[in-house]
Amino acid sequence: xxxxxxxxxxxxxxxxxxxIGGRLIRVVGVGNVLDDDGIVRLHVxxxxxxxxxxxxxxLTQTLGVPIRTERSAMVQLLRSPAVVGEGVGHAQCQCLxxxxxxxxxxxxxxxxxSNRHVLALRGENSVCDAVVDANGQRIAHVSFVAPFTxxxxxxxxHLEPDQRITVLDQVQAVTAxxxxxxxxxxxxxxxxxxxxxxxxxxxxxxxxxxxxxxxxQIAIRGSxxxxxxxxxxxxxxxxxxxxxxxxxxxxxxxxIGQGARLTFVNPIRAVLSTIPLDARVFV
Length: 283
Hints:
This protein is mainly beta. It has two domains: 4-71; 76-198 and 218-283, Thrombin, subunit H (Beta Barrel). Helix content is 10%, strand content 43%. The chain contains four helices and 22 strands. It has an eight-stranded antiparallel beta sheet with strand order 8-12-13-14-11-10-22-15. The protein has a six-stranded antiparallel beta barrel with strand order 16-17-18-21-20-19. The chain is globular and about 65 Å long. It starts with 6 loop residues before the first helix and ends with a strand. 44% of the residues are buried.
């Protein structure tokens, strides 16, 4: 199994095209994944164009553990073009994501929780920028943008005083376990269910025109060969069978390549620890 002892080896390949003897190797994801046969294996995802046979032999020898290599397109952020319906996004962006949850602080101010790439078009300079719903109506303004540390993709937006919401339930944050049932309600695909297949996945993704490595991510595979998420579901709160919060959905496979389609989720405890707000989570 993949452990921290392998990290220094994997970093040499993750996101960096390497040519060895004229053969290309480019790793775009790595992590322990629960396979359909119930066995956890180290999965190494290779970008299209990589010499899969050579890469498998080299990495197996280098890491010293059994691995499964699979070709995969680059993972994408899951925004979608704005359409009439539910969803949130930066006022100047043509894409929308999903409002994941409401955070209510001790001062009773209400903040919308979603991804940085959904709410903050201008990155950390987006504070005070307008946030709109799918109808183009201003409903909030950006109040916090988490810096990229390789762990979370998070931003908050303060609800405007003239907006009203109906809070249904407070949600408890828990740590995801491999094998957990997971579900979400996304702006684009609605309700879907899947299973946690990894909770320590590392992947390369392009964010704000830069390739970045995100580590210690939750990976979810949809049930019955169905996709768990599509473009427009970024920011959705992923929950377990008891309704507890597992994390914040932020990216997914493009569906190209031979790898099983996965959705990637920031762990909820990491999300909440990044936010400078003593708040409760409501849905």
